[in-house]
Amino acid sequence: MSSFAMPLAVGYPSSMWLGEAVANSRLKDPCKRKVRLIPQAALVQSRPRPVPATRDGGGNSALQVMGGDRTNDMQAEARALARAANASVYSPELLAIKYGSRPIKVLRRTLEIFIGLGSFGFRLLLDQRNGQLDQNKRVRAAELRRVLTKLGPTFVKIGQGLSTRPDICPPEYLEELSELQDALPTFPDAEAFSCIERELGLPLDSIYSSISPSPIAAASLGQVYKAQLKYSGQVVAVKVQRPGIEAAIGLDFYLIRGLGFLINKYVDIITSDVVALIDEFARRVYQELNYVQEGQNARRFKKLYADKEDVLVPDIFWDYTSGKVLTMEWVNGVKLNEQDAIERQGLKVLDLVNTGIQCSLRQLLEYGYFHADPHPGNLLATPEGKLAFLDFGMMSETPEEARSAIIGHVVHMVNRDYEAMARDYYALDFLSPDVDVSPIVPALQNFFDDALNSTVSELNFKTLVDGLGAVLYQYPFNVPAYYALILRSLTVLEGLALYADPNFKVLAASYPYFAKRLLTDPNPYLRDALIELLFKDGRFRWNRLENLLVQGRKDRDFSAKDALQPVLKLLLGPDGEELRTLVIKEAVRVTEAVILGSVVDTYNSIPDLMRALIFNGNATGPLLMSDTEQESMLQLRDQVSRIWGLLRSSDNFDPALLQPILQVLQEPEARGLGGRVIGGITQRLAARLLQQVLRAPTTVSASTS
């Protein structure tokens, strides 16, 4: 049987982001430590925007399912926004005014935190002195989980962030802290039901025909109930915010921020502005408290990514949503890390993980708007085989320039072009333009020359992340927060896949998407990256093109038409003369290979007796070329033939796609290009014919003796 799982208000990427800052502040050598994290808004909230109706699994508009058209839905969203008008916003100044005049409350909370964490730290110190640190890891990990849970939501979220950081925490701690994702204490149901009535302004029995008497799940910021709407009979998930949570986290952030000031003033080895990092973290947590914002995030995500039949995003019911209550479609499914339960439904974990990888790549590199919290509790396998995304409290955006730069970075890695890789860090906003990248190149070369002994697709993603992180650690990089979240997203998916297949490689699963983008995207940066990949030292690498087509065809959105047109337009553009020269040279080679290959095939098909009579016993036949040259020419012809076959066998191949290409070829530049190719092949064939005519009989005789 499938288990029910619900959208939880876990949202740990904000904690993870803080964990990233903590990790970058743990210095092994203060003299070498130069990495600084930018406290910029990487985790963002989407602006209110109208979203077109999307389709549910039955082909009906999600808005129609909710009982209204688009206009009614937008009006309902506006009413929800009005209900959330007084949602709290993080303000350190207001917190300072509020708690600066309450010293007793501040002191009491300080003692609670000090006693909780201090007692845990003291026991760790005793373990170290007694040589039992490793032996007691499991016990201490469980103890830390209990301490953080007892200290409340702020520390639960910090623990959730630590649970995603294998570079900080040992495996025993990771396992225990991961339970903070969805195994938290609940608050009284009466308080939850009272909150619903207060927020929505309606009695409970007028909203729902039934609601679960106790929560289905609880998380750091709220808990979830299963209910049935009275007006439509639709089964929904109702997330209700914990009472008093704003005051609780406000006091904690006031204290933590005070600690940040002390660290900035007295701890010299930490170069980051700790107060700025804490403020950024706090702003993200406060944004997560606004459930209308989460609903808008979900709608935007659904609009962008739920167009794929294997991706499911629950819809939002605005009339029953406010700043502290979120009502969305109920999703029946199994968590992605529950492999046995998934397989009992006849599904394959690797298929679902691959769906997640392809969707994540679209999020990170196509639209730039991505789910920043893809832990197993937020990724469900539905009985129909769809991958459902849940919990949209924390979202992030990849800057537009960085999306192309990341793909280009992969190309430069494949080419082992370490100077270009180093320059990519400007576009990725890792380095300011005035930083000299030349000292970074040897470090990249030392790592990647060793890591790339195998092909890129066989490279373990974690190995790549760890190695690149070691390089970043040594040089003055400003690491944007979005980058850490990208790595986190793909690392989580690879980790899930490794449960099912220890040999799984996320880069191998990602390569079809990269190949498709390189072949079809008209972006100038990616066009240049494709040329870099395919040309080397004036020669075209047909094996690279064949591999790109083989991989790109694995992506369901690959289009042969899209793959041909951008390259032709680039080739015939005003700035394409250098490329045209290379293409003409290669076109001559290919044409020659096709013509002479046909001659060789014809010669080989003639019976030996006839061959001896026609060519007077000449063993070299009609062509004067070595066996190596002949083999190379036949290989080139066959490879080009395979590539054309790949284009023709593409699912959406239609001869009509050649029509716009022919129109492009009718342009003046194209006609001149054809003339240059014909002229080149004519010269090559004439030269070979002259060689045949002038060859010395003695040389032939010697070669046949």
From TrEMBL:
One of its GO terms (molecular function) is protein kinase activity. InterPro entries: ABC1_dom (IPR004147), Kinase-like_dom_sf (IPR011009), Prot_kinase_dom (IPR000719), UbiB_kinase (IPR050154). Residues 210-540 form the Protein kinase domain. Pfam families: ABC1. SUPFAM superfamilies: Protein kinase-like (PK-like) (SSF56112). Belongs to the protein kinase superfamily. ADCK protein kinase family. This is Protein kinase domain-containing protein. It comes from Liquidambar formosana (Formosan gum).
